[in-house]
Structures are given as structure tokens and as C-alpha cells.
Automatic annotation (TrEMBL):
Residues 177-205 are annotated as: Disordered. This is Sulfatase. The lineage of its organism: Bacteria, Bacillati, Actinomycetota, Actinomycetes, Micrococcales. Belongs to the sulfatase family. InterPro entries: Alkaline_phosphatase_core_sf (IPR017850), Sulfatase (IPR050738), Sulfatase_N (IPR000917). Coiled coil: none annotated. CDD domains: SGSH. It comes from the Bacteria. It comes from Georgenia alba. The keyword NADP does not apply.
Length: 474
């Protein structure tokens, strides 16, 4: 049976494409620069774009481990950069049981242990031009499609671009990180961006070096779009029966985004196109989605029942009824996100609960007197912020706040989506603060979060004393 036909069970092929460190507001379809990401924008025009989709944790390996298990990091064993725990089902188990061939392109080592996934096709970064060569992705995709056609089986391909992860295109870091030979294996983006052409996101200071680094990041984002275009082009006739899911694993690798729990840390540009099912150009502006929902969604699409999928209880819910238009959106009033460990394996425990109005963050590490340090502080932007702080007291205070957080933060996401004004000490928001504490405490208890007892003790003390939390006068 050719791969562009459905199997006898009506199972679609599935392409799961991930960008690496792409901000939600980078694709044009999500409000980004016009013309920068034509392939992502076209995909969104053909499918459903989710405007309130979040990853559960804003750093690469834990985010991907959660995606491929449908479980919170503390429930799959990969809270940091550890392997997924023995006995935890992974998505490829379920898809293999349904007859799928499975493949992965790039970011192979970010799902551990690699052998646990049983990939039928496994192509690491170095065979893909450091994860940045569109032609290499196209060739590997064609190989996957041809193998499935010969076997008469549906296929699942997880194609992972390494852009726009640092080092950004044209940066000094790129020349330091990759050798001349490595740089020769991938092309420049099909479009570059002049420094200063676009204002940086509002959570970053508008400084010359920030604009320069933001332009480099946007150029790398264009090359991610180039890779997506090559993969979609290589699918060929199989496109008519292929579900395409696009998302980023976390926010951009800049301060106040990746490796945090702010709104722009976890908000992801999720698009799903399911030929013959999803309505072209549909937008879900209100429904709160977690990428934990993708595991049960893809199993549902593939006809894998919950028992064979090993679906966890309550971590995620299938979006298929929503995509089919058969049922109202998933009934979720809040999104919880977490953080455990940086790529440098530094433990910085955070928890966050957001609804459509407010976002509350608990910085456990701050209560222990730690100083924040993460990979998002590399490059030009953090250096520019700290240097400007020597002349500008407001920027100095913002840099200090980033390094030494208050244990609790509260933001009005409607009035302040960039999370610039912390309301945790505002008496006018005390009731909201208390309500959000109760929400995160309930979730921590219900999910078995290992810090639940500690948080509940502290939250109870704060709520009944009405005083600032420990470390609040920093």
C-alpha cells in the first residue's frame, strides 16, 4: 500500500515538527514579523492555530520528555536531564503497537534513553548539517516515506530543527561553537534580518545590542522555517493523509523567557493540520492547551486505545474531539507549568499557575538564597542589560530582580502580558494571590509533586500571617 493512502484501519501518517527555542510571537501567524516564516504561516492557514498552548517546562530535554510520555516531569522521571524512568510508556511504544514505522530527525539525544524509543529511522544532528540543513532533512524525510511505502505501513516522524537555538546565525558565538567545517555543512537562512529592523519583545530592553541579537535570532528562525518547508516538500503525495503538528519546545533563549516560568517561557506556537478533519484557518483563542495533551491526541488519531497507550491519569487530554468539532473545548480553567533544572544541571525549582487573567510563580530556589544563572544569559542581551543598568536605575532593578527573585510573583496577564509589574505585594491583589496559592497547592498535592508539602507549609504561613514571604525584602 503506498504511504499516501490510509491503512486499512484508517490511520494517518503523523509528522511532529519541533522548533528549538522559538518564541510564540515569532511566526507571522502568531503576530511575528510579516514574511519571516512563510511555511509556518501557510501551515496555520491550512490548520488550527492555538493561541493559548503551553509546554509544561521551558527547557529542551524535559519538555520533549514530557511531550513523548504525556506525563509531568516528576511523573516520568526526567525532571532535569535524566533519562525517562523505566516502566514509563513512551509514544513510540503506542504507535509501534498500531503498526507505525517511527523516525526521528535531530535532537536524538534529548530523548533518553535513546534505545528506549526503538526508532526505525534515527538521524542525529551531525548528519543534518548541525540540525540546520534543509536539504539533509528533506533527504531523511524521503527515506522515511519510502520505507513506509515499501512496508505498507503508516509512519510517525519527529522532525526536530536545531534552529533557532543558540548559536544564532551570524553571531560571534556561532564561529566559537562550530568549526569552519561544521559551518560548511549548513546554509545561511533564505532570508536574513538587519539589526534594528524589528523591535525586540516587550519583556526585553530596547537596546542596540539587543536589537542586533534579536535580528540574529530571527534569521535563525527563518532557517527553521526553511527546514520545515523542506520536510513538508519531501512528504509529497503523502501530505493528503498526514497529520502535521508544529510547536516549539520552549520560549526563546533570552532573559525572562527560556528556563523560567513566565508567560513567554512556556507559551508555544502550536499548529495542527489534519487533512479532512480540521477547518482551514481555524484559531483557538480561548482554550487552554498543554503539550501534555499531544500524547493522548496522537494516540487517539492513530486508533490506539488508552490501555495500549499507557495513558497517565489526568496529565493530558485528547484534543481530537475539539479538532473534529464534535465536542466543546477541553474544560481547563488553568495551566500549570514547572521548572526543575537548567541545561548546566543547576537546580532552580519553580512552579506556576496561570488562568486567562493572572499568572502566579513560586520561586523555591529564591527562598534558599540562590542566585539565578542560566543559558539564556549568554550572548549580547544580558550583557547589554547589565551594562545599561549602570546608567539606568530601572534597568539595574530589572537585572537585579532577574538574578534574585522574590519567592512569589503575581502578574495581571491581561494588562501586563510581558510580566513587567509584580503584584504579589499589592494589597489590592491579596485575594487573587491567595486564590492562586490554593490552586498551585491543589495541583502539587494531586499530582504528587515532591515539593508539595514544603510549598503548602509556606503558603499556609503566608496566607495566615499576611506578611511577605522569606527573602521578600531582597
Amino acid at each position: 500500500m503506498p504511504s499516501h493512502s490510509r491503512s486499512s484501519a484508517g490511520r494517518p501518517n503523523i509528522l511532529l515538527f519541533t522548533a528549538d527555542d522559538m518564541d510564540v510571537a515569532t511566526p507571522g501567524a502568531f503576530g511575528g514579523p510579516h514574511g519571516l516564516t512563510p511555511t509556518i504561516d501557510s501551515l496555520a492557514a491550512d490548520g488550527v492555530a492555538f493561541e493559548r498552548a503551553h509546554v509544561p517546562v521551558a527547557v529542551c530535554q524535559p519538555s520533549r520528555s514530557a511531550l513523548m510520555t504525556g506525563r509531568w516531569p516528576h511523573r516520568n522521571g526526567a525532571m532535569g536531564f535524566e533519562p525517562i524512568a523505566d516502566g514509563v510508556p513512551v509514544l513510540t511504544d503506542a504507535l509501534h503497537s498500531a503498526g507505525y514505522l517511527t523516525g526521528i530527525l535531530g535532537k536524538v539525544d534529548h530523548l533518553q534513553p535513546v534505545a528506549r524509543f526503538g526508532w526505525d529511522l534515527n538521524v542525529p544532528m551531525r548528519q543534518l548539517g548541525m540540525g540546520r540543513a534543509p536539504a539533509a532533512y528533506a533527504a531523511a524525510t524521503r527515506e522515511m516515506v519510502e520505507r513506509a511505502e515499501e512496508a505498507g505501513r503508516p509512519w510517525f516522524l519527529m522532525a526536530n530543527a536545531h534552529d533557532p537555538h543558540r548559536p544564532f546565525h551570524g553571531s560571534a558565538h556561532e564561529a566559537e561553537r562550530f568549526t569552519a567545517e561544521e559551518r560548511s555543512t549548513y546554509p545561511a537562512p533564505s532570508r536574513t534580518v538587519e539589526p534594528g529592523a524589528h523591535e525586540p519583545p516587550g519583556f526585553l530592553p530596547d537596546l542596540p545590542d539587543v536589537r542586533t541579537e534579536y535580528a540574529q535570532y530571527l534569521a535563525s528562525s527563518r532557517r527553521c522555517d526553511d527546514v520545515l518547508a523542506s520536510v513538508l516538500g519531501a512528504i509529497g503525495e503523502a501530505a493528503c493523509t498526514t497529520v502535521v503538528v508544529f510547536l516549539s519546545d520552549n520560549g526563546m533563549a533570552f532573559p525572562f523567557a527560556k528556563a523560567n516560568c513566565y508567560l513567554r517561557s512556556t507559551l508555544t506556537p502550536l499548529v495542527i493540520r489534519w487533512p479532512g478533519v480540521t477547518a482551514a484557518g481555524a484559531r483557538e483563542r480561548d482554550v487552554l492547551v498543554s503539550t501534555l495533551d499531544l500524547y493522548p491526541t496522537l494516540c487517539d488519531m492513530a486508533g490506539v486505545d488508552g490501555n495500549r497507550a499507557g495513558l497517565p491519569d489526568g496529565d493530558g487530554s485528547s484534543l481530537v474531539p475539539l479538532l473534529r468539532g464534535d465536542a466543546p473545548p477541553v474544560a481547563r480553567d488553568e495551566i500549570v507549568t514547572v521548572f526543575h533544572e537548567t541545561a548546566a544541571k543547576r537546580r532552580l525549582e519553580m512552579r506556576c499557575v496561570q488562568d486567562r487573567a493572572y499568572g502566579y510563580i513560586w520561586n523555591c530556589w529564591s527562598e534558599d538564597g540562590e542566585e539565578y544563572q542560566a543559558e539564556n544569559m549568554e550572548g549580547l542581551t544580558w550583557a547589554a542589560l547589565t551594562a545599561a543598568g549602570e546608567r539606568d536605575p530601572e534597568l539595574a532593578a530589572r537585572a537585579e530582580q532577574y538574578r534574585f527573585r522574590r519567592p512569589e510573583e503575581l502578574y495581571d496577564l491581561r494588562a501586563d502580558p510581558e510580566c513587567l509589574t509584580d503584584l504579589a505585594d499589592d494589597p489590592a491583589h491579596r485575594e487573587t494571590l491567595t486564590a492562586m496559592r490554593l490552586r498551585i497547592a491543589r495541583w502539587m498535592n494531586d499530582s504528587g509533586d515532591p515539593l508539595a508539602a514544603r510549598y503548602c507549609r509556606l503558603a499556609d504561613q503566608r496566607t495566615h500571617s499576611g506578611t511577605s514571604p522569606p527573602g521578600g525584602d531582597r
